[in-house]
Automatic annotation (TrEMBL):
Coiled-coil ranges from the UniProt annotation: none
Residues annotated as catalytic: T28, T28 (o-isoaspartyl threonine intermediate), T108
Gene Ontology MF terms: asparaginase activity
Name of this chain's protein: L-asparaginase
Residue ranges of domain Asparaginase/glutaminase C-terminal in the record: 229-340
Keywords: Hydrolase
Record bears the keyword Hydrolase: yes
Similarity comment text for this entry: Belongs to the asparaginase 1 family.
GO BP terms: asparagine metabolic process
Organism: Paraburkholderia caballeronis
Length: 343
């Protein structure tokens, strides 16, 4: 589906511009380093939302901006309580007649997790667009200002009902598909298996496809104050069962395993996870490879052991969905598999 939006040659009266709420949470986009050539030794989240907006010329010609500083953190330290706060605030803003869309600035480290969480719990069809930066605001050729400009452009022009979007390096990604694929590159966010939804450049927004799986108003999940404990383990050469056994003793509700290849598991780890499943712990098989899908192994293995396939979700997004599913009362491998097949 192509949905092009071309910038007008004449200015739009200010009172008719879309009203976009910009929520800042910190991250590299709000980071600062001692000098302009330092792109690694910086402190994240030290620049406020007002300064971020001041660094983006032309925003006033795109939208009327309402800015809020929700948090000022490095996203590697994202707490679950902030997920709850952010989702609740986005829902409140989307319910307001004074807001036409929401932009969220975020750190890159956990952006894909926050984006998918909001994709499943936001209850509105107005655009919600996340963005970030790989270089701090103090850096030579900082990428944050253009990413923020493009995110506001997408929020002001995107068709309704697209779910939560990520605008980064001129591309528009679906929250379910996008993942961080580089430690340093300005095109660090990709949708490896299916590609971007579209692109944004010089005020033009174009979508090539739509997200097909349920999200936002079609999602059954709501944000809650309580989060069931779900952890992630990995399969690798010589892995022991120590981590799984310790998590079971700690009382976790679910474990996502980043398996090799098609979610395959070392025999020792598989037995530990089967024992955990027998004690009522939800077990989801994902893959550590970074793309592709994990096929269900059928009654002879997954069915007998009580395991669930994550499908195309990476381990970190599978954890988000499993937490939401458990919080909503879904129990048992069959019911959880239906959730993963749906979302």
């Amino acid at each position: 589906m192509n949905t092009p939006v071309t910038p007008s040659s004449s200015p739009t009266p200010a009172h008719t511009l879309p009203r976009i709420a910009v929520l800042a949470t910190g991250g590299t986009i709000a980071g600062a380093a001692p000098d302009a050539t330092n792109t690694a030794g910086y402190q994240a989240g030290v620049i406020g939302v007002g300064q971020l907006l001041d660094a983006v010329p032309g925003l006033g010609a795109i939208a009327r901006i309402h800015a809020e500083q929700v948090a000022s953190i490095d996203s590697k330290d994202m707490p679950l309580a902030l997920w709850t706060q952010l989702a609740q605030r986005v829902n409140a803003l989307l319910a307001s007649d004074d807001v036409d869309g929401v932009v969220i600035t975020h750190g890159t480290d956990t952006l894909e997790e926050t984006a998918y969480l909001l994709h499943l719990t936001v209850k509105g069809t107005k655009p919600v667009v996340m963005t970030a930066a790989m270089r701090p605001a103090s850096a030579l050729s900082a990428d944050g200002p253009l990413n923020l400009l493009n995110a506001v452009t997408v929020a002001a022009n995107a068709a309704a009902g697209q779910g939560v979007l990520v605008a980064f390096n001129n591309r528009i990604h679906c929250a379910r598909d996008v993942t961080k694929v580089s430690t340093y590159a300005v095109d660090a966010f990709q949708s490896p298996e299916v590609g971007a939804l579209g692109w944004v450049q010089d005020g033009r927004v174009e979508f090539q496809r739509r997200a097909l799986r349920p999200h936002t108003v079609d999602s059954a999940f709501v944000i809650g104050a309580q989060w069931p404990q779900v952890e992630i383990v990995a399969s690798y050469a010589g892995v022991s069962r120590a981590a799984v056994d310790a998590l079971v003793v700690a009382g976790v509700r679910g474990i996502v395993v980043a398996g090799t290849g098609n979610g395959s598991l070392h025999a020792t780890l598989q037995q530990a996870l089967a024992d955990a499943a027998a004690q009522g712990v939800a077990i989801v098989r994902a893959s550590r490879t970074g793309s592709g899908h994990v096929m269900r192994n059928g009654a002879a293995q997954d069915g007998a052991l009580g395991f669930v396939s994550a499908g195309t979700l990476n381990p970190y997004k599978a954890r988000v969905l499993l937490m939401l599913a458990l919080a909503a009362g879904h129990a048992g491998a069959a019911a959880l598999q239906q959730v993963f097949d749906t979302y």
